[in-house]
């Protein structure tokens, strides 16, 4: 049932404040009361963590890698499952491995899980479908509690995966003693803000998304740039746009721009820059200057602090509330998802059932 929405995808985008609140309720309790039990994985003892998944779930994992490394000082090996399973990675049996899958049935992810299990690693699964094969074969199951996701393009499952990964990374940091109790409290408070801030953003950005999507629907190619956790989010933005609007898009680390893709920049190529006012902001701005100097049209997605600090001439700047760094990927997902959705509407594509795609990929 789509309720008042035209598509399941739209409904699922707007459901995010509610489902994330639900997921966070579950995990924040676990962090506060029993950090050691956030897991069933002994984060204090493992030498490293492996993560594998496909598509959007993989990009959530990539953001998780930044968090586990930064907060829990845990080395993370990550790859798309179709590569991970064949790479013969020298993994320690003392390590743990996390597999992320909305459906819990993705063939390559399941094969990677079985490969790690064979090697003796402790297996965690971040899944939406708790009755799935991946959930059944894991030692520890971390439900994302997003409710059924019908739209083929993943939206609420992605942000719920992020919420769970953030909670696990904080739990791991607490267990490993790499953050102080005050820092844990501050991170948890930031996480708890997500539903409210998401609601506020969803209520306010509609008009500018509408206007920008009309522009994007006239383009053949779109480039997304970001640094830090905004880099995987840039790739997610590009993936979402191509899968439902069929417009070619690429997501790049902002610092890689000058190593090739800058050759593509001209006045026909919009560049969507994801840049909250974080540690990387100034560097990303200097990459934007390189784009502007070559006539590229910039759509900047930033926060209030970033908008005040950047003097650049952009085609448009979307200004989101300023939030703690750990939650910005969840908040910045919203304009990314809505831009893809509205652009697809202008293109007249079948948003919930894009051509050639299946919701659950059970063959290799
Ligand atoms: C993109 C998308 C896919 C899935 C991927 C993994 O919007 O939905 O990239 O994320 O096929 O699926 P799950 O999470 O079911 O393993």
Automatic annotation (TrEMBL):
- Give the Enzyme Commission number: 2.6.1.16
The GO biological-process annotations, alphabetized, read as:
amino sugar biosynthetic process; carbohydrate metabolic process; fructose 6-phosphate metabolic process; protein N-linked glycosylation; UDP-N-acetylglucosamine metabolic process
Q: What EC class does the entry list?
A: transferase
One term under GO cellular component: cytosol
Recorded catalytic reaction(s): these are:
D-fructose 6-phosphate + L-glutamine = D-glucosamine 6-phosphate + L-glutamate
Question: What residue range is the signal peptide?
Answer: none
Residues in the active site? 359 (for fru-6p isomerization activity)
- Keywords for this entry? Aminotransferase, Cytoplasm, Glutamine amidotransferase, Repeat, Transferase
* GO MF terms held by the record: carbohydrate derivative binding; glutamine-fructose-6-phosphate transaminase (isomerizing) activity
Cellular localization per UniProt: Cytoplasm
| SIS domain span | 37-178, 212-354
General function of this protein: Catalyzes the first step in hexosamine metabolism, converting fructose-6P into glucosamine-6P using glutamine as a nitrogen source.
Q: What do we know about how this protein assembles, alone or with others?
A: Homodimer.
Q: What is this protein called?
A: Glutamine--fructose-6-phosphate aminotransferase [isomerizing]
Q: Which organism is it from?
A: Mesorhizobium tianshanense
| Gene that this polypeptide is encoded by | glmS
Which span of the entire protein is present here? Answer: 244 to 607 of 607
């Amino acid at each position: 049932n789509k309720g008042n929405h035209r598509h399941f995808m739209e409904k699922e985008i707007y459901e995010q404040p509610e489902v994330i609140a639900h997921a966070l309720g579950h995990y924040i309790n676990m962090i506060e009361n029993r950090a050691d039990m956030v897991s069933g994985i002994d984060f204090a003892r493992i030498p490293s963590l492996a993560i594998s998944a496909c598509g959007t779930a993989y990009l959530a994992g990539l953001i998780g890698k930044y968090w586990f490394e930064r907060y829990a000082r845990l080395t993370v090996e990550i790859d798309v499952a179709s590569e991970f399973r064949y790479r013969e990675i020298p993994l320690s049996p003392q390590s743990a491995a996390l597999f992320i899958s909305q459906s819990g049935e993705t063939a390559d992810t399941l094969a990677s899980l079985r490969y790690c299990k064979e090697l003796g690693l402790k297996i965690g699964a971040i899944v939406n479908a708790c009755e799935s094969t991946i959930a059944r074969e894991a030692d520890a199951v971390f439900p994302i509690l997003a409710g059924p996701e019908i739209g083929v393009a993943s939206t609420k499952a992605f942000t719920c995966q992020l919420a769970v990964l953030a909670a696990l990374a904080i739990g791991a940091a607490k267990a490993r003693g790499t953050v102080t109790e005050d820092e844990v409290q501050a991170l948890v408070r930031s996480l708890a803000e997500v539903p409210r801030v998401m609601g506020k953003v969803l209520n306010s950005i509609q008009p500018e998304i509408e206007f920008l999507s009309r522009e994007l629907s006239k383009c053949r190619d779109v480039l997304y740039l970001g640094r830090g956790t905004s880099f995987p989010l840039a790739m997610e933005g590009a993936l979402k746009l191509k899968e439902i609007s069929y417009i070619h898009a690429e997501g790049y680390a902002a610092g890689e721009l000058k190593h090739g893709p800058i050759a593509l920049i001209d006045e026909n190529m919009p560049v969507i820059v994801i840049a909250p006012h974080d540690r990387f902001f100034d560097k990303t701005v200097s990459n934007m200057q390189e784009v502007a100097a070559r006539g590229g049209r910039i759509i900047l997605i930033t926060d209030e602090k970033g908008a005040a600090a950047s003097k650049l001439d952009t085609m448009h700047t979307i200004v989101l509330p300023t939030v703690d760094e750990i939650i910005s990927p969840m908040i910045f997902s919203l304009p990314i998802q809505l831009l893809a959705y509205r652009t697809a509407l202008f293109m007249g594509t079948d948003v919930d059932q894009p051509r050639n795609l299946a919701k659950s990929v059970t063959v290799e």
